[in-house]
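DM between two lab members

TW: hey, do you still have the Transcriptional regulator entry open?
JB: yeah, one sec
JB: this one, 294 aa:
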Amino acid sequence: MTLRDIEIFVTVCELKSMSAAAKKLYMSQPAISQAISQMEGELQVRLFDRIGRNLSLTYAGEILYSYGKRILNLVREAESTLDDVKNMRMGRLRVGTSTTVGIYLLPEIIGEFRKKFSIDVYFTIGNTAEIEKLIFNNSIDLGIVEGPVHSRDIVVTPYIDDELYLVCSKSHRWAEKKSISPAEIENEDIIMREKGSGTREIFEETMARNNVRYRIKYVLNNTEAIKKAVEANIGVSVISRLAVKKEIRGGRLVKVDIENIRFERKFSIIYHKDKFKSNLFEEFIKHLYNYSIR
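TW: and the structure you got?
JB:
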């Protein structure tokens, strides 16, 4: 049976007339009769008793009528739901972000977006390498990352600028300095994110480009833990300005410049080149850019 067959059968049941059903469905009466006969032949049951000009459902017909109504209602419900999705009255978006964006930026962005659209936004936090893998597995629709992306199958669109700050404790010997020379960092204990982190990759690339030697003594995969360790004067670290602006304003951490060296980067929006970009997808991208320029 096709959906059209079910629609014809249910319409005949409700109108109790093949001619009336034909008129409602813009079909000829012989076409309606043929469709019912074909259904009976395929199912090998009688659906109607034809007594004179009257049609009445058989027991098998009553069963099919019950199922038929439910099927057509489900189809209408599916069409209505998909229309809501198309017009963004409902929907689902899966976003993956690297740690800095996920903790310090994305919650506010999603909150503002949900004020405009009643949709579910699920987000996952991981390092850049992990988000790239989720894109490939189609586990997320798009990502916002802080590190370089290495696959040609992923579209990378520049988003917002960021800078990593070298920070130390207020009790560290650098706290009273405005800047240090690159040589001063060589023997310092550095607390750094794990490999695969965009922060670490930017730090290592910048130091290599400037021929600066360094020593990573502690590796932590949590930015908040790194900040606490720096506050305790266990070592120094390089952390996004988004993550340390409150601590710097509050005097718990101190920003230290390195002469002629800046750790600059750009957050990027990424998605697979073959990803279907729905209305919701495009609207969220637009929202990201509108939010970033406030």
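TW: got it. The chain has three domains: 3-87, 92-160+266-290, 163-265. The first strand starts at residue 48 and ends at 51.
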